[in-house]
Write a structure and sequence with these properties.
By secondary structure, this protein is mainly β. Helices cover about 10% and strands about 60% of the residues. It has an eight-stranded antiparallel barrel. It starts with a helix and ends with a strand.
């Protein structure tokens, strides 16, 4: 009886360890996320032209080289309203942003929790709606951030929360300046 219980315990432990190792060795992952978004920089020296808080949704695909290093490609759609106290005719105009880029992700697996940092580059396209005062444009952008992932036991799923920063040059006629956009999201990752 003692041997049977011991074998059962060994079998359960082996099954758990195998499932955990398989989850850690997944090379390709896909993810989706959604959350809030804000531009933190003013677009003029007087501080009368900026953006309100907005929302964002997105997703992407990643390749894990090891348990500590991976690369990811990401596409994010964000929308916020223009806050125009300067009288430029843009008050309340919806500004769509399309972020696309790639980054290197450095992870530190701690059992089920995995803190990570990332950095990379890409582009941002601003597409103003409801106004003819500002044209669409695309700029190169830097991308960086940090996050925390939680692996769900005995599954291919992880949930995560992360903060992302984008830095790019905003050059829209009378408005000019380096823009620093931040986003905070929650999401789901699936290992393939």
């Amino acid at each position: 009886m003692f041997i049977v219980r011991g074998l059962k315990a060994f079998g359960v432990a082996t099954l758990f360890a195998t499932n955990t190792l398989v989850a850690q060795e997944r090379k390709v992952v896909v993810f989706a996320h959604g959350g809030g978004y804000s531009s933190t920089s003013d677009l003029n020296n007087s501080g009368t032209a900026d953006f309100d808080l907005g929302f964002q949704v997105g997703g992407g695909i990643g390749w894990n080289f090891s348990k500590n290093v991976g690369v990811r490609g990401d596409f994010t759609f964000a929308r916020s309203d223009f806050d125009d106290d300067a009288g430029l005719g843009l008050q309340g105009a919806e500004i769509n942003r399309y972020y696309y880029g790639a980054d290197v992700q450095i992870r530190l697996p701690l059992r089920s929790f995995v803190p990570y940092v990332f950095g990379g580059a890409g582009g941002v396209t601003l597409d103003p709606q409801d106004t003819s005062s500002l044209d669409s444009f695309t700029r190169l952008a830097g991308r960086f951030g940090l996050g925390l992932s939680y692996r769900i036991a005995n599954s291919r799923l992880s949930i995560f929360s992360q903060g992302t920063g984008w830095v790019y040059d905003f050059d829209g006629g009378t408005l000019d300046g380096t823009q620093f956009d931040v986003g905070w999201v929650g999401g789901l990752t699936i290992g393939l």
